[in-house]
Amino acid sequence: MTSAAEPAETDRAARLADVVAALEEFYPSASAASWDKVGLVSGDPEQPVQRVRFAVDPTLSVIEAARDDGVDLLVTHHPLLLRGVHSVATTSAKGAAVTALVVSDLALYCAHTNADVARPGVNDALAGACGLPDGCDALDEEDGQPIGRVGDLPEPLTLKEFAQRLAAELPGAPVGVRVSGDPAAQVRRVAVLGGAGDDRFDVVRRSGADVYVTADLRHHPALEAREEVRGGTPYLIDAGHWATESLWLAAAADRLRERLAETGLTVDTDICTIRTDPWDFLVAGPEAAAQNDLT
Questions:
Q1: Alpha-carbon distance 53 to 62, whole Å?
Q2: Of 148, 154, 152, whose CA–CA distance to 126 is shortest?
Q3: Which runs of E-coded beta strand occur in 84-170?
Q4: Which residue, among 13, 4, 5, 10, has the nearest Cα to 263 in the 3D structure?
Q5: What does pTM read for this prediction?
Q6: Cβ neighbours of residue 164 under 8 Å, at least 6 residues apart?
Q7: Is 241 annotated in some ligand binding site?
Q8: Which residues contact 144 (CB under 8 A, 6 or more apart)?
């Protein structure tokens, strides 16, 4: 029997270890790509956690805002220390970020490629924004893990209609959505890959997709991909790295809060409101503006 002076097990405060265990259940670090750096970056597993914030990037501004808002744990999609560093002096942005985390007792956990391949995960959120049903097939597999998603829309749309609907579902970013293909062409089968995806064109073609939604499409790979199909399918949509991956945050935050509640632990979760897309504005020349005025 629990005395009045002793809180019941269901009333105990959440520890960082409890939250990390739930995150590892959803996004096992072992499922990340071999080159990736995921998991707990800073923090004491025994420290209490009351407020958790989700963000795409662990930039200095994101870390400082979390610190100022009293956040205990920052969960980001992109790793802070993906490449080796030899100094964490505050003379560099990376060093300043690490120092801010440690000095503020702000824990950082990163779920990157392990969140990409998870179900539900980053690519399921992007598939949903595209209008695809739940349970889409994996676009590709690598080391036994599903990469990307591919599925069919409930009904065909023109490429322009599809791009417009997707743009309305994405968080606003200055560069917007770039499209390659005939705006009047009909599309139904859609392949998606959040973040950089111009290394999967062969797989996308084999999937029979009419349109491929991804990000960070470079000039030469994109041009060659379009030439390869002689102007046909798949058409290409570059929806932005930050935008395509930020869709995952809300669902991940809700899922974590609900999972912890099942074990009697209460934490508050929120989403970072700082846009970490690196571009700030777009200037379109007269010719580009005319080309975008599609009717």
A1: 10
A2: 148
A3: 107-110, 137-142, 145-158
A4: 10
A5: 0.92
A6: none
A7: yes
A8: none
CATH 3.40.1390.30 fits domain 119-239: yes
Tokens 């997709």 identify what position?
A: 209
The rounded distance, in Å, linking the Cα atoms of 106 and 60 is: 13
Alpha-carbon dihedral sign for residues 4, 5, 8, 13:
positive
Burial class for 288, CB neighbours closer than 10 Å (0-12, 13-18, 19+): exposed
User: pLDDT digit string (tens) for 101-136?
Assistant: 999 999 999 999 999 999 999 999 999 999 999 999
90, burial (CB in 10 Å: exposed 0-12, middle 13-18, buried 19+): middle
Phi, psi values for residue 68, rounded to 5°:
-65, -25
Rounded distance, CA 43 to CA 75, Å? 12
The 3 state secondary structure assigned to 179-218 is EECCCCCEEEEEEEEEEECCCCHHHHHHHCCCEEEEECCC
CB 216 within 8 A of CB 238: yes
Tell me: is residue 86 an annotated ligand-binding position: no
Alpha-carbon span 194 to 130, nearest angstrom: 12
CATH of domain 9-115+246-271: 3.40.1390.30
Segments making up each domain of the chain, as ranges: 9-115+246-271, 119-239
Is 116 annotated in some ligand binding site? Answer: yes
pLDDT 10s digits, 133-173: 999 999 998 878 899 999 999 999 999 999 999 999 999 89
